[in-house]
Design goal:
The chain is of the alpha/beta class. It has two domains: 269 residues, 3-Layer(aba) Sandwich (Aspartate Aminotransferase, domain 2), CATH 3.40.640.10; 136 residues, Aspartate Aminotransferase, domain 1, CATH 3.90.1150. 39% of the residues lie in helices and 14% in strands. The strands form two sheets. The protein has a seven-stranded mixed β-sheet, with helices on both faces. Strand 5, helix 8 and strand 6 form a beta-alpha-beta unit. It binds pyridoxal-5'-phosphate (PLP). The site of pyridoxal-5'-phosphate has 16 residues, from helix 4.
């Protein structure tokens, strides 16, 4: 029987043999690692023996976190990074080359969208489609297509990709299927179950949860056959082909670009992960209650949350995910300034970031989606009055009272 996710996380370090029977993997702060003989050192360098040579490629503390994430995803291996963006950039730069074609969603996390622009400057072709429909992904495929990249729940409008349909398509066409599961976390959803090749997490969000560390990860589910992938270099085609893709991500993506997760931050993320399931249960329940409450407010024009029956992909979310996530967004009606709503909130922090224990809210059009310009915002259906809320784990009565006070203040105005 597979043990429950929380049980696995709690006991991972000890069962992997942490030093002195410690229940936490200690902080390994060394940059370099010495070996008894030159033969031992070269064996590690040449990948014939596992071990550490230089901290930029990882250390035992972040290695323990990588093991934990692999266990959470029921996958074969993970590489940790200094941030989610470092992880995503590493996948593209390590596994694609000029002339390759990538299909991705039109509704992407803003910085990932910006990175797509960089990829195009470097000679890759990128096609943006509405990934809630696998048919649009299929229609965009070309002979040079190597990879499809999607997010599980898009931010801020919470569109849900056709994860199953795209997975089937990628399996048929032999494409690397990369799923950014940051908003679902391994507690709500395992991308492996819909055929994902690689799973991305921004560990800075719900997996850490406490808003006190940045991190990212790339996990190989073991489903993709790397032996036929033309972009892998001969030096990484050694041993079990299942490990080839991730080895190239570690060498070309992590080692050469240097977006390395520090031991301290890896440790904080690992502590956060211990309560992921408890926090997600509470945050998802809070988000559903707040979404339902917002729907009834006369000053609110629309609410996007996958847990609402009206959400276009509600059925998909219900069948694929254990819960509907902690992110929602809403638009105010004409004549109500979203800044007035935000300025009336006392508990909800006016801040970007998401997946924090604290509830965070921000006006997306004038902050995180400002740089891309109005045309792009319109194509992503981001209205000027749209407020994104990352719902935390406060008591729901306190949250509803906070929003209630902010809306009451509008009426009084
Ligand atoms: C935050 C986020 C990222 C980037 O992660 P960082 O750790 O902030 O670099 C990528 N994808 C999604 C879906 C995110 O929410």
């Amino acid at each position: 029987m597979t043990r429950d996710i929380t049980t696995r996380i709690l006991h991972a370090d000890r069962l992997a043999g942490a030093e002195h029977g410690a229940t936490h993997k200690p902080l390994h702060i060394a940059t370099g690692y010495g070996y008894a003989t030159a033969e031992d050192l070269t064996a590690v360098f040449q990948g014939e023996r596992s071990g550490y040579v230089y901290g930029r490629q990882g250390n035992p503390t972040t290695g323990a976190l990588e093991t934990k994430i692999s266990q959470m995803e029921e996958a074969v291996g993970t590489v940790a990074f200094a941030s989610g963006m470092a992880a995503i950039a590493a996948v593209f730069t390590a596994l694609l080359r000029a002339g390759d074609h990538l299909v991705t969603s039109r509704f992407l996390f803003g910085n990932t969208a910006s990175l797509m622009d960089t990829l195009q400057r470097l000679g890759c072709e990128v096609t943006l489609v509405d990934a809630t429909d696998a048919g649009q992904v299929a229609a965009a495929l070309r002979p040079e297509t190597r990879m499809v990249f999607v997010e599980t729940i898009a931010n801020p409008r919470t569109q849900i990709a056709d994860l199953q349909g795209i997975g089937k398509l990628c399996a048929e066409r032999g494409l690397v299927y990369v799923v950014d599961s940051t908003l679902t976390t391994p507690y709500l959803f395992l991308p492996k179950n819909t055929g994902a090749s690689l799973v991305i997490h921004s560990l800075s969000k719900s997996i850490c949860g406490h808003g006190n560390a940045l991190g990212g990860s790339v996990t190989d589910t073991g489903l993709f056959d790397w032996s036929g992938y033309a972009n892998l270099l001969p030096s990484y085609r050694k041993g079990n082909p299942q490990a080839w893709g991730l080895l190239q991500v570690r060498k070309k993506g992590l080692r050469d670009f240097g977006g390395t997760l520090s031991a301290e931050h890896g440790h904080r993320i690992a502590i956060g992960a211990e309560t992921l399931a408890l926090r997600m249960e509470r945050a998802c329940a809070n988000a559903l209650a707040l979404a339902q409450w917002l729907q009834q407010q006369p000053s609110v024009a629309r609410v996007d949350y996958p847990g609402l029956a009206e959400h276009p992909q509600h059925q998909r979310a219900a069948s694929l995910f254990r819960g509907f996530g902690a992110l929602l967004s809403f638009e105010t009606v004409a004549g109500i300034d979203p800044f007035d709503v935000l300025n009336g909130l006392e508990l909800a922090v006016k801040s970007t970031h998401l997946g924090d224990n604290r509830t965070l809210a921000l006006p997306v059009a004038r902050t995180i989606y400002w740089e891309m310009g109005e045309q792009m915002r319109q194509s992503m259906h981001i209205a000027d009055s749209l407020i994104r809320v990352s719902v935390g784990i406060e008591a729901i009565d306190d949250l509803l009272a906070d929003f209630g006070k902010a809306f009451a203040r509008l009426q009084a105005k």
